[in-house]
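Recall that a protein's primary structure is simply its ordered list of amino acids. Everything else, from secondary elements to tertiary packing, is in principle encoded there. The following example makes that idea concrete.
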Amino acid sequence: MAFFTAASKADFQHQLQAALAQHISEQALPQVALFAEQFFGIISLDELTQRRMSDLAGCTLSAWRLLERFDHGQPQVRVYNPDYERHGWQSTHTAVEVLHHDLPFLVDSVRTELNRRGYSIHTLQTTVLSVRRGSKGELLEILPKGTQGEGIQQESLMYLEIDRCANAAELSVLGKELEQVLGEVRVAVADFEPMKAKVQELIQSIDNSQFPIAAEEKTEIKSFLEWLVGNHFTFLGYEEFVVGADQDGGHIEYDPNSFLGLAKLLRAGLTSDDLRIEDYAVNYLREPTPLSFAKAAHPSRVHRPAYPDFVSIRQIDADGKVIKECRFMGLYTSSVYGESVRVIPYIRRKVEAIEQRSGFQAKAHLGKELAQVLEVLPRDDLFQTPVDELFSTVMSIVQIQERNKIRVFLRKDPYGRFCYCLAYVPRDIYSTEVRQKIQQVLMDRLQATDCEFWTFFSESVLARVQLILRVDPKQRIDIDPLLLEKEVVQACRSWQDDYASLVVESFGEAHGTNVLADFPKGFPAGYRERFAAHSAVVDMQHLLSLTEANPLVMSFYQPLGQVSGQRELHCKLYHADTPLALSDVLPILENLGLRVLGEFPYRLRHNNGREFWIHDFAFTAAEGLDLDIQQLNDTLQDAFVHIVRGDAENDAFNRLVLTAGLPWRDVALLRAYARYLKQIRLGFDLGYIASTLNNHTDIARELTRLFKTRFYLARKLTSDDLEDKQQRLEQAILTALDDVQVLNEDRILRRYLDLIKATLRTNFYQTDANGQNKSYFSFKFNPHLIPELPKPVPKFEIFVYSPRVEGVHLRFGNVARGGLRWSDREEDFRTEVLGLVKAQQVKNSVIVPVGAKGGFLPRRLPLGGSRDEIAAEGIACYRIFISGLLDITDNLKDGALVPPANVVRHDDDDPYLVVAADKGTATFSDIANGIAIDYGFWLGDAFASGGSAGYDHKKMGITAKGAWVGVQRHFRERGINVQEDSITVVGVGDMAGDVFGNGLLMSDKLQLVAAFNHLHIFIDPNPDPATSFVERQRMFALPRSAWSDYDTSIMSEGGGIFSRSAKSIAISPQMKERFDIQADKLTPTELLNALLKAPVDLLWNGGIGTYVKASTESHADVGDKANDALRVNGNELRCKVVGEGGNLGMTQLGRVEFGLNGGGSNTDFIDNAGGVDCSDHEVNIKILLNEVVQAGDMTDKQRNQLLASMTDEVGGLVLGNNYKQTQALSLAARRAYERAAEYKRLMSDLEGRGKLDRAIEYLPTEEQLTERAATGKGLTRPELSVLISYSKIDLKEALLKSLVPDDDYLTRDMETAFPPSLVAKFSEAMRRHRLKREIVSTQIANDLVNHMGITFVQRLKESTGMSPANVAGAYVIVRDIFHLPHWFRQIEALDHQVSAEVQLALMDELMRLGRRATRWFLRSRRNEQDAARDVAHFGPHLAALGLKLDELLEGPTREGWQARYTAYVEAGVPELLARMVAGTTHLYTLLPIIEAADVTGHDAAEVAKAYFAVGSALDLPWYLQQISDLPVANNWQAAAREAFRDDVDWQQRAITIKVLQMADAPDDMEARVALWLEQNASMADRWRAMMVEIRAASGTDYAMYAVANRELLDLAMSGQSVL
């Protein structure tokens, strides 16, 4: 950041002057300005602008103050921290100011000292000033730079800024040291000339030497000394000394008078220790060598921070004894290092000698090589090394040239204070790191205290490092140069070198070389620092083992050198392509019970660009865990890898791997059970369950052992052994449970035990095709063994668990069916399925199977995924779920049962499993069938209905059509024909939906005034039925549509399509009128609430959600949060009819409330049973045809063609069921109030047998029924819907357990379950149908309840004491002999021709006939029912007599019949039907008549005449009518009334038989009867008198009829001898 700007240096000076002017007088300003110009002379402008102008002015003034007075004898040194207060300016650094008379080396020496002390220099301003001073040193004048002359002094000014020194002591020490340095400079400079003179002196002394020196050598020594003086040596000091000997070495004795320069300072005050030298040094100093070289022991503080060089001239006597040594100390000037060795005296001779000795040709390669080596050899070596040693070193260097090898040459200095080392290192591996390693080895081996180095690079492949090591002369270290070199080589041997050789060793040469080539960069530096090369080889093996299937590898290790008490552990994770996110891995390790202390990621790059990652984790086991992880290594590793892969979940259960030593699958098993516990509302969250198991690891282990024993070891054990083992394990668990203190934990663990014991089968030990464990578990439970299971409790339940998906399948019987739903209720999908299965149970009353329902919850849907991505994951989850179900289901092969592989079964054979589509899985049937076919499942593509070779519900519109049948009936009973008359509709759903779309195309007369789905609200207040129908058809045909696709141009005024996310919606006048809304503006939710309450004809639900509840229920009770804001109460609905195509559109209590308010509705399971009914037909047809295909009598293709060709027939059968069932409801609702007592008894009976829970089904209590009765109301249609289903379910069960389905005649009923065309072709195969008994039971139960009413079986059971099976058998006989179905069809054909009331009245008559006739059969054929015989016998007689009915009847009886007949005909009933229904009472009496004919042998027609004649004569028809009209207050009275009627029938038959058996009686029946009465006159008179009394009686009294019946009995008995 610049503090000011200046255009140029001149501009800066100008600004500076302006700043200075504020502080100094005007006259001083020019001088200060001139000073400032010189002071900042060489500093760049850039550097200046980085400082504040005020601070620059401050430092200028400060320096000026220093200049103002100065004595040359006392150099000035100031070291201070400038601050505003004391100095008027500031700096972040410490300022150093030095003023000294100008000398060489000042600046270098100051700078050297600062660097030596470790201070960084931030600013350095130096200038040499020309000044004049007065006598006292005061400044007189500053002159322009470089001015010379008399009285002008040159002064050197230095200004530096260095790192700030905080404390004052440090500042003063620094000041003193700098003064010392300056002192040394002065001394050295002062004696420079005397020292040069000394050289000349010594040159002469050589000439005069007593010791003989060769002439050549003499000349060379002299030229060398001349050369030194010729600007090649900076003289710093001079001394003379002699060597004194001691016993183990010697000492130096200096001659103080000889001292020049620094010697004066350095040699003062030396101790004897300082003067001591080792014996080898003494020997060296006594050698008669005239010229020698060495290094000084301390670095120079003057000029350069190097160790100064010694140049010694020894004075030697004639004997070769050294007299004294004259020694110069100084520094070679830089030019020496640049000059050729061939021009430096003394050295040049050594060079020549070596070249000669080498014998190399000067121009040859080696000669040149040698010359080059000598030229670049460090000068120190050339000066100091004796020729012999130098020769061998140089030759070795020549030999290693251009070879990638490390060589080390070592030389000791003669005084033993230094070691000189030359290290040659290949350039490609040379680095600071390598140099440090070499230095370290040398310093360690030589025990050096200091080391200096110079690195030399040339075009050679080798780099050269020259190291000078400071050693202690006393330490006599014997160094083996070869060994040392080896050590250096080893130290320089890089990690990579070790790694490369180990890779080749481990992988083999070929593979190893490839591996090294594949990863050219090898391992990163961070890795190399932490791990040895052999670890890297192991890690590389792990990395190479990564595959698609195995994308993660883990290895645990304990770091070497760890203190034994430390519990720290490490693991490495190996992974390709992307690094593992810490946020993913940490929670996994923490959940495994490990505390992570650190993580280090390392990346390796393959040649092909692929990345590989190694993550190194350090951790300890969590508190309180004392375990040997090495022992659990594999278990832990296995667990971790599977958790990261997603095969196992990451939660607190995983701690069991460590705490209980359980493998991950066993942990997953316990987790799966916990997940199930959550679904069955145990009330504890998973975390608490996990901590319970962790607190009781012994029990957790025992539980898994019990499971293993039951389902794995059981394969090899006999049942007794297994039982024994299980008992022992269970006992052990129970004993351990006694020690569990916490009640909740005890409850959880006991429930685990219950669940394992309730598990019947599992696929846990089943493997897939590759022999691998499956990624999901499925468990089949016996729910009745699980305590506190939410009701209703199914017969079987399968729970499928994997981290990806969970699901349950609930079945209420061995043969059960229901859809599978894609649930989104993570917390309680089982609760959702339980709610649905209740509806399924009652819905399935019309079909063979009982209720079942499944739901699966995908747990890893892609976040923010597209519709297709989410669908793909949903399908994958569905596949897992289906596989889980089939894994543990029995199969059938060639009629024999095949249990699933590797599944231990603790239950009986159970091969029937079918599924169907439901919310979210509409298109999944083919997928399910594909899986079933892969499994070879016996049902093949009958497993999931509605696939491509099945009946497409949406295409058929079967669910909507079925519900429409109910809607038609509701309106028909209100006098409206929805196919002809226009009705207004509000709908829930959109045209893309099956139920909604198909439903709103059921009639082209509909006026759809409003509809909504989750996105839009559609409003068309006054639509044109025809055009809107066409537009709806167009939308339905689109692949996907929403209300926004509707053509708004054809909409009526005031309508529109509104978004549900709009803020508010304006209400048009037309909307106000149509929907009876007052407001001008409503929010979308308020508008929907108003639409649901609108006064329209029909509310059609084809959507998802619950929109209507009872006023007594809260929104929370409903359990559909999304629609709380718009939901309405049943008593607020103003529509006439609700059609429930969708499930759960209303709560059951909401329906009841609507019904009590006069609304027309059934229930969802009645209205939309078409779907499930159609699916069941499909499955049963496929089971039949698959047998035919397998027998080879048909191909698959033919089968599929046949299936398709029967679509309409199947639809017809289904809609027939819908029609019949809603008709039965209408018949029941019509008499619900009168029959209230019967329903009470039915409910009590079902409850007593545990078949019904009124509360679950929302059926009214006795008190509520009594309250209703007070207002003249009985059960509503929705309640009757529940009861009709329950009575069918109950009857189906009873029939299945009886012999009814095995009776050949009764079995014919199964044909009604199949399309007529199929019956014609395959009736033989049908008898062998696998579900024959179930189908027969279902068909008979449905037929009976639909035609005879909900309480029929219950009434007859009570009045006759016979079983439901007997009742059903008798019913079939009655049905067939009276041809009841034929007559019912005749009445049904009158839809819209006569009023619905008339139709229902006609049916009521038929029901009465059926009921009475069935009771007659039950009473008269108590133990010998034989349907085939009875139908064959009674059928023809009844047909014959029925035609003559009007001939047979006479008197008042005939008149009554005639009146009824006429009334029916006038109401529009065809004559034949009217005759039949008018005579139902008399038709019933034909049964005793035919029986009487059998007894007497008379012709049936004769018997009939007699029978009716007896009746007329005794007034019995009137009397029977009186009995029938008796009011019934309770069940006893109802039973009494039935008994009275039966008695009268029996007596009338008895009298008839007697009349027919009279001897000698006239042929005419009336005459015969008259004769008989004459013969029994007294009795007959008593009876007639009784009749008179009854006629006269005012009240109706059961006692009276009891007495009258007794009289009639007496009459019937008369004429018999009393026994």
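The two ends are 139 Å apart (CA to CA). The mean pLDDT is 90.
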